[in-house]
Amino acid sequence: MRKTYFAILALIFFSAEFSVAHPVSFQGATSLMSYNKENENELMLTYSVKNYLAAGLTYYKVEDVEYTVPRLNFLAKRWNNEDSQGNIYLSAGYGSERSFEERNGVTLVSADVDWESRKYYTSFQYNKYFRQDTEAANRTDFEMMKARVGVAPYLAEYNELNAWFIVQFEKSNDKAIETTQFIRLFYKNVLVEFGATIGGGWAFNYMVHF
Q: 175: closest CA among 209, 199, 206?
């Protein structure tokens, strides 16, 4: 009976960990996350030193600008309820920006907030890259916000194929809000998302824990 109880707790924990791509995972876990769409690619590798702290490296390319930033991710707050979980993550790092054959220092700050159950989830993410070169007045910092809502059409166990329907709203700098619809599939330690924007663009994301 006791083993069954702990198995159920582990199942709930791992299902929650995968319903949202968290910047900090369980202690000792290495995570590889990638977010891709037309003219925009992001790759993040993290290692969770503790269950509340992870060291990582982000490579982010948007149009003709590339950012390479070592970072620290911190679980600032977690709420564990009977059938749901909420989290606040804070991240910061310093690295380089490459554009027009020039390199400049850049500081990254990021915040992730999410709430999830086995059936529903919502999340909000804010990222900002502060350029350290103040001489280039015609080039600005890069700011991006994402809000997501999702629902699972059926409830599956950890060792079964899980599916989610997701709608994402994204805003970066002075661009219009972009709406993307995703189908998310995850099985054990692998998660993939296939998406299409309202305007007809494509999106593909994946995450692996190992």
A: 199
Q: How far apart are CA 57 and CA 69, in angstroms?
A: 6
Taking each continuous run of H as one helix and of E as one strand, the counts in the chain are: 1, 12
How many degrees, rounded to 5, is the angle at CA 107 between CA 43 and CA 60? Answer: 20
User: Does residue 80 sit in helix, strand or coil?
Assistant: strand
Which DSSP symbol is given to 154? S
**From the centroid of its chain, how far is CA 169?**
14
pLDDT at residue 66 greater than cutoff 50? yes
Taking Cα atoms as reference points, which of 180, 166, 184, 162 lies closest to residue 118? 162
**Gap between the Cα atoms of 86 and 16, Å rounded:** 10
Distance in angstroms (rounded) separating the CA atoms of residues 75 and 93? 15
Domain ranges of the chain: 2-22+73-204
pLDDT at 134 over 70: no
pTM of the model: 0.86
Other residues' Cβ atoms within 10 Å of the Cβ of residue 35:
19
Question: Is residue 32 a contact partner of residue 207, using CB atoms and an 8 Å limit?
Answer: yes
